[in-house]
Amino acid sequence: MQIESNFNLSKLNTFGITAKAKFFVEVNSEEELRELFADPIFVKNKKFFLGGGSNILFTKDFDGIVVLNKLKGIEIKEEDSEIVMVRALGGEIWHDLVIFAVNHRYWGIENLSLIPGTVGAAPIQNIGAYGAELKDTLYNVEAFEIETGLKRVFSQEECRLGYRDSVFKNELKNKYFISATTLKLSKKEKKNISYKILKEYLETNAIEIHNPKNISDAVASIRRSKLPDPKVIGNAGSFFKNVFINRDQLEKLQGIYKEMPFFEEDEVIKIPAGWLIEQCGWKGKRLGNVGVHEKQALVLVNYGEATGSEIIELASKIIESVKEKFDLTIMPEVNIV
Ligand SMILES: Cc1cc2nc3c(=O)[nH]c(=O)nc-3n(C[C@H](O)[C@H](O)[C@H](O)COP(=O)(O)OP(=O)(O)OC[C@H]3O[C@@H](n4cnc5c(N)ncnc54)[C@H](O)[C@@H]3O)c2cc1C
Fold this sequence. Notes:
3 domains, five-stranded antiparallel beta sheet, 20 strands, Uridine Diphospho-n-acetylenolpyruvylglucosamine Reductase, domain 3, Uridine Diphospho-n-acetylenolpyruvylglucosamine Reductase, domain 2, Uridine Diphospho-n-acetylenolpyruvylglucosamine Reductase, domain 1, alpha+beta, 337 residues, binds flavin-adenine dinucleotide
């Protein structure tokens, strides 16, 4: 374990924003993590835990220590004829875990294929896509408390997973380092193909749906056609969360915008923020170094030399115009640092 100074983070965030960390360290094992927790530089400085950097926006240099999670390993903890408990360390790449699962014909996370980032960050915002969420399979989370260095196991309920949300984004924000997660996957066929776009893709391409690998490949192919690749153009996926409204608001808005899409689930009504942004004329718009992606209005992009502040400025303008047109407030999904 080696602590570096004045470290350039531009290659460690998918927005490709230039920012420096006063101190930087990579942790490769729990032993290194324990060693780090006792180090005076760690103890005295502000801390930031970094995975794949795919859900953050640096707006300035970080005046503290950035800890890059490189804890690797995937193991089967328990299994019977129906279920399998798979434990993965936090620095594993999320999609590698999906590949491990589908190659073994384990069901449960195939819809979450190709979501960038690490296993350790997945519970933070309860990653979700194509009608599935981490919540559907998460069994527990292992995490080290920063103040005491003690390890704690959080049950799924204790993680309080919600829509792009968890206890780690709220009361326990910056208080724990997530070192591992265990997922409960199914050996029995348990497909989830209710999501319209996925269902249509599987039908149109006559894909055999009794193998999670086929569903994973289908999700990956849809994603590649819709989302910009951060290696080509800097972005952090959806910049904004969808908006929850009540029935009165829905009726009022539908009176004006008859074609407005919405999803209803368990009494909750959700409006796609991408549609709201598109209606305000932002899709494909560029303002200097930053812009809104031409195929997906939820995604803000860095055309090369952008600063975090330029992205924030664009985001604020978008929030303002959505508020003005629809009287709805859209909120960032990305963590602003
Ligand atoms: C092209 C693209 C598509 C995307 N699509 C989706 C999608 O479909 N669904 C979805 O849910 N998300 C999506 N995302 C967002 C992102 O992939 C997820 O939020 C992912 O879980 C972030 O993982 P990460 O390792 O990159 O986290 P980072 O960006 O490194 O960190 C995110 C936050 O988690 C904290 N954190 C990271 N690791 C730890 C740890 N070990 N312990 C404690 N805190 C930690 C960080 O401090 C930060 O606050 C997309 C992003 C991109 C770029």
